[in-house]
Amino acid sequence: MTAELVRGQNQALPWTRLEIGVEADRALALGAVLVGEAGHALGGAEGIALPGAPPPPGLAAPGPPGPTHRLAVDLGALPSAATRLDLFLALPGGPGAPARFGALAAPRVLLLGPGGEKAAGFAVTGLAEETAVVAVELYRRNGAWKIRAVGQGYQGGVPALLTDRGVDPETARGLAADAQAHPVAPLPAAPRPDPEPVALPSPAGPADEGARSGPPPAAPQPVPDAVPQGLPERVPTAGPDADRVRIGLWGAPRSGKTTYLAALPLAAMQHQRHHGGGWHISGMTEEANAYLSQGMDLLTRQRAFPEATMGVREIAWSVQGPRKKRKLGPGRRPNFVLDIQDAAGEVYGDGHPQQAQLVSLLARSHGLIYLFDPLGDAQRATESFNFLHSALTLLTAQVRNRGGLVDGRLPHHVSVCVAKFDHPGIFQPAAEAGWVTQDHEGAQLPRIPRERGEQFFQWMCDDFRGATARLVRDALQTYFDPRRIAYYATSAVGFRLAPQHVFDYRDYVQEIEADGRKYLRTSPGPINVLEPLIDLEDRIHRETNRRGGKPW
Predict the structure, then answer these.
(1) 330/340 Cα distance (integer angstroms)
(2) Which residue spans within 36-117 are E strands per DSSP?
């Protein structure tokens, strides 16, 4: 039986020799990139398989652009430094070729075993203006290989896709031109039927005509539609009273954005235990639900961290909360659709090929959750300011050009989260400096009081981190209205708790490393993960009401 994968879902590979098949209603180019630990193509152009070029070890050469493909892969023959194999589809150039994937029926990718049996399939849906897409990836984890359905599109085409994997932009453009200019394989022609004899009149006259004309022609058979396989998907709905809130998630590479998203539904479930009043988060699409369930499984059952986001993606979740008490009236029950713009931290960097796409999404957002990672900020490769200022400048220009600035500043509401509060490199200095208070009930968790969040961030920038962190603070307070910024000390996984399920300062470190991978010692207990989102929605809702239905 063929397993139908949804975007983000993975499946173990039982063989080392396999084939990747492609089925489409138009000619597409197929290519592959061998990726190493740093997320870059191995050996630059030498790690890329394109039509008409010598392939890397372990891969067959892709055929010319066509509606179907079969690419043979020998995982055992791949270079030992390869940790991932990205397989991508691209629109070929030339007259009459489609200009974007959104104009085509969804192509389908198949995982085929050594005997050609179909083991898994993935319909690459949800594309619009993109001209290239990473369809699936084969990746190695703890010595075992898996396949993951990706579906990450690139409006900048193959050059943007390759540049995102560390290929020099000029080289990427040359490789893309070679691949997409390769002659297109023609669509297979339908067999031509033998001509039928012409019926001649008979001397017997019209009375015998029916007997001589033979059986009536068969009725024409319907042509099957080129549609994605799997269960039909209903129109998403979150109820007639649901608002739509667009939130951008911002942060430098490895600041914990993906783990933050994975922890959101868990934080929603645990909210009632700590604060009273339950919150519920569900996906608006099959893909969004799969993302939620896989993230929950990783954190709670496997006690592992999710892999970092690649490129840019949009996720839509339905969020319902408890009714909020008011002095007058019954109060409001939060019920909104959360559109999250999630992007790899590298996309925020100056000159990244997907930066313009990301900035356009942020310009349409109502609010931003900004994750500031003090540990990553101390590393030159992940200094926070390098992945903030350039995108802020472009964002301001785009919002200004459409007349959206408010008193010369960006109109967004912002939640600034000091990430990884559970890490001893952050928590211990904060405790020793007197910023931490501890609950006296329940799990007796330590925390930074909400009313001291801004002062804690100021201390983090002035005394704990220094020059680059101060630049981050100054940029946030220059480009955004300081009255629209709230501050939190956040941990997506929380602290390790003692067997009595209480915090123990002698042994609170949650993260451990085994077999080259990071794990959690106990079940996660997110801290200030849901709260920044709840606060953003409430602030946006109140301002929307003040402005007669417009957030700004």
Answers:
(1) 30
(2) 48-49, 66-74, 84-90, 108-112
Q: In the prediction, which pLDDT does 213 show?
A: 43
Pair type for strands 132-141 and 485-489? unpaired
- Beta bridge mates, 140: 145
CA 422 vs CA 175, 197, 507, 521: distances in Å? 45, 84, 12, 13
Mean pLDDT for the chain? 82
269 three-class SS: helix
pLDDT at 417 over 90: yes
Is residue 228 within 8 A of residue 107, CB to CB? The reply is no
Residue 262 tokens, joined: 């994975």
User: Residue holding tokens 């301002």?
Assistant: 543
CA distances in angstroms from 96 to 100, 157, 202, listed in the order given: 12, 17, 51
DSSP, res 308: P
Beta strands in 498-540 (DSSP E): 511-514, 517-520
What are the Cα distances from residue 64, in Å, to 51, 89, 157, 480? 5, 12, 17, 50
Q: Answer yes or no: is pLDDT of 18 > 60.
A: yes
Cα–Cα distance for residue pair 451/256, rounded to 1 Å: 24
Q: Which two tokens stand for residue 480?
A: 């955004």
- Report field, pTM of the whole predicted structure over 0.90: no
Smallest CA-to-CA distance from 375 within 494, 253, 462 is with 253
Indicate the pairing of strand 10-12 with strand 84-90.
Answer: unpaired
* Token representation of residue 156: 């900048």
